Fold this sequence. Notes:
The chain is mainly alpha-helical. The protein is built from 27 helices and 10 strands. It has helices spanning 2-28, 38-44, 57-63, 67-78, 91-103, 113-125, 127-150, 160-165, 185-190, 205-223, 226-235, 237-246, 253-256, 262-265, 267-279, 309-316, 320-326, 349-357, 359-371, 412-419, 423-430, 471-490, 507-514, 518-524, 554-563, 577-583, 589-596; strands at 298-302, 307-308, 334-335, 344-348, 391-405, 442-456, 494-500, 537-545, 566-570, 608-612. It starts with a helix and ends with a strand.
Amino acid sequence: MNVKNTTLSLFLLLSVHLFSQEVVENKNFVKVEPKLSYLDSIKKTFVKDEMASCVDSLWMKELTNLDLYNNITDDIKNINIDEKVDYELPTELLKERLAAMDAKSPFNIEYNQGLENIIKSFLKNRKRSFERLMAISEYYFPLFEEALAKQNVPLEIKYLAVVESALNPKAVSKMGATGLWQFMYQTGKQYGLKIDSYVDERSDPLKASEAATQYMTNMYKIFGDWDLVLASYNSGPGNVSKAIRRSGGQQNYWNIRKNLPKETQGYVPAFLATMYIYEYHKEHGIIPNRATVKHFATDTIMIKKQMSFKQISDLLDVPVAQLQLLNPSYKLNVVPVYHDENHFLRLPQDKVAVFTSNEAKIYAYTQHELDFREKPFQVTKAIVVRDTMNYTTQRITLPKTKYYKVKRGDNLSEIADKYDIAVSDIKKWNKLKSNAVPYGKSLKIITEQSIVRTIKKEPKVEVVPSETISESQRVVASEVKINKEEELASNPERKDIEYVVQKGDNLGNIAHKFGTTLADLKQWNNLSDHNIALGATLIVAKDEIVITTDKATANSFKKKANLATGIEYYVKKGDSLFSIAKKYPGVTISDIKKWNDIRGGNIKPGMKLKINV
C-alpha cells in the first residue's frame, strides 16, 4: 500500500512539472500575424452592413444552368404532336380545364388531340424540368409582367420565355438568337438593344423584355390574333403570311399550322402546354423547387470606373456566378465606362450598401490594379547611378525662344501677363512701334528656362615650385598628370547637344547635318509633325561626350582611340539601335549608324554590326 501511494505521488509531481513547463512555453509563444495583401487591407477598412446575404449557391447554379434550355429546345423541334402519349389524364377533365383557361385568356385555348398529346408528353417526360423552371420563374416573372403590363400585352406571354430560352439569359441558339427572348442580331438592333464588344442588351432581362413587348404590340396590329403573333415571333411575319395564303385565307393558327415551318408547328402547342402545366401543377403533383428567397431584393449602382466581375467579387464577397446572373448583358464579365453613356451594376441590396459606403476605396483598388498592369509600347529607361562624391549639381538659367500667334481680341498686356514678361520687351523683340498688334501675327517671345546640370568636382592640387622638384619628383609628377588625363578621358562628361533653328532649316537637313534620323529628332523634341519654328532650340544628339580642351589633350584622345577595340554584334529578334546602344556604355545610336553606314533606323535579325568599345 505504501509503495502504491509513493508511485502515485511521484506521478503527480511529474505531471505538475510537465504542465507548468507547457504553460511557460505557451506564454513565450508569439503568434505571427500574416502580412495582409492590398486587397485584404482595403476590405479590412470596409464599413459593412449587418444584413446577411440571401444567396444560395445551388439556387445560383439552377438560374444559370443551360441543360433546361437544350432539353426543351430539342423537345419542341422533335416532338410529334400527332403521336398519342400514354399518360393518366382523362380527356374530359382536360377539356374542362382548357375551357376554364380560355375564359380568362385572350388566346384561343381550344381542345384538340395535338394539344392533348404534347401536354401529356411534358407531364410524362419533363416533370422534373418544370419543377426547376417554376423555381427560376419566381425571379424572372415579376420583371416580365411589369414590362408586359406597361404595353397592355397579355401577361400570359411571360410563358413564352420558358419555351424560347428556358429562362436562361445566356442562352444562344444555333442561328445566333440570344437571351431570354431569343432576339436575332438585326431584330435586336431594330428594337433599340445595344450590342457591342462589351455589352449585349439582348441578355438584359429588363431591356429585352421591353423590346419583346414592343415587338408583340407591333405584330398584333398586323394580324389581330395573339396565336398568330406567337407564330410570327418564332418564324417571322413573312412565313405566317405565306401560310395564310397557302391555306386559302384562313387565319386560325390550327388551320394554317401544316403550312408553317416545322419548328413553328410545335411552337404554339408547346406554349399552351406550358401555360397549362403552370396553372395545374399542383393537380399533377409538380412541386416547384424552392430557393432561400422567392425574388432577389436588388438595386443598381452607376459605375464610374471600369471594373471586372473578378474585382467586384473579391471586394464584396459576391460569387462571380451571381454577378453574371444579375448582370447578364456584360459579355466579357467587365462593366465598361463610356464617356457618352452610363452603365449600371445590379447587386443584392446588402451589397449595394457595402459598395456605396466604401465607393472611394473600391475605385482606389481598381486603379491600383490598373497601375500594375503591363502597358503596351512602354520603354523603360535605364537609371544611371552617379558618383555623388565626385559630382555635384548646378542650376543654370538659359534663354528660350517661343512664337505666339496673335488671336482675335488679344492685346500686348494680356500676352505679356501670360508669359510673365514686360510689354516693352515684346515690342523690342518684334520691333513694334506701338501697342497695336495685328491679328494673326506671330510674336517672338523670349523666356528663361531653368535647368539642372551635373558637373564633376575638381580636386584641389597644390602648386610646388619647380626649383624644389628633383628629377625623380618631376617623373612622379608627370605620371600623376598622365593618369589624371587618362581618368578624365575615360570618364567624360556627357550631355544633350542642342541646335538653334536657322532661316531655311527643316527637319530633313538638320537630321542629315547631325547624322541622325527624323524619327529620333521628333521623339527627342516631342514633335507631332515636321513643322519647326525659326529660332527654336532642338536636341540633335543624346548623351554625347563633351570635349573640354582645358582638361583633355590630343594625346589622351589618341591613346583612347588606340585602346578602342572593335567587336561584332549579331542583331537578335526584338533588338533596336536604342537597345543595342544601351548594352555598351559610351556608345550612342549615332555611333552605331556611323560605324556601320546605316542611313535609316531599320535593322534586321541576323545583321552583323561593328561596335567600337
